[in-house]
Write a structure and sequence with these properties.
By secondary structure, the chain is α+β, with helices and mostly antiparallel strands. It has 3 helices and 11 strands. The strands form 2 sheets. A 7-stranded antiparallel beta sheet has the order 4-5-6-10-9-8-7, sandwiched between helices. The chain has a 4-stranded antiparallel beta sheet with strand order 1-2-3-11, with no helix packed on it.
Length: about 160
């Protein structure tokens, strides 16, 4: 992954905790656990210190990430504000669509936008969900054509928190 996208993930995704375990569908660390939707065969897992999970879809030049944090801003911050905060270091932000939907039995916000980081335009799709005092961010970063969007939406639709 190019250095600038490692840097981009540092801004966009939540900081992960130590001791994580991922079995291909279920992620667990000391503070949270969740299951993700189907991971397409073309996605390869990445090591990303600022994401709980990260994948690269080489066929569509997209990067996928999942972030999560508990006990910081899960109760009193609106989903719109949490989404805005993810893109605070980006320029020329153009929100193309934003919709509330149900994800894992809770209200979530799906936002699709074009934005620039370090002058490079990209298409971003992010799902933000608050549940049980935790905030989860599922992110798709693609070229401006947005390749691989339907696979990412299926991945996000399968997201479930676990005890």
């Amino acid at each position: 992954m190019p250095q600038r996208w490692s840097f981009a993930l540092a801004f966009v995704l939540a900081v992960g905790c130590g001791g994580p375990q991922f079995d291909g569908r279920t992620y667990r660390n000391e503070s949270l656990a969740f299951r993700v939707g189907p991971i397409p065969a073309g996605w390869r897992q990445l090591e990303a210190k600022h994401a709980l999970l990260a994948f690269r879809d080489d066929a569509t030049s997209a990067t996928i990430g999942v972030g999560g944090r508990c006990g910081k801003d899960g109760d009193d911050v609106p989903l719109e504000s949490l989404t805005h905060h993810l893109f605070i270091h980006f320029t020329e932000r153009d929100v193309e669509s934003q919709e509330h939907l149900s994800l894992d039995g809770r209200d979530a916000l799906r936002t699709q936008m074009l934005a620039k980081l370090d002058g490079v335009p990209k298409r971003f799709t992010v799902y933000v969900l608050k549940k049980d005092g935790c905030v989860y961010d599922l992110l798709h970063i693609a070229d401006t054509n947005g390749g691989g969007q339907s696979q990412f939406d299926s991945f996000a639709a399968g997201f479930r928190t676990l005890e």
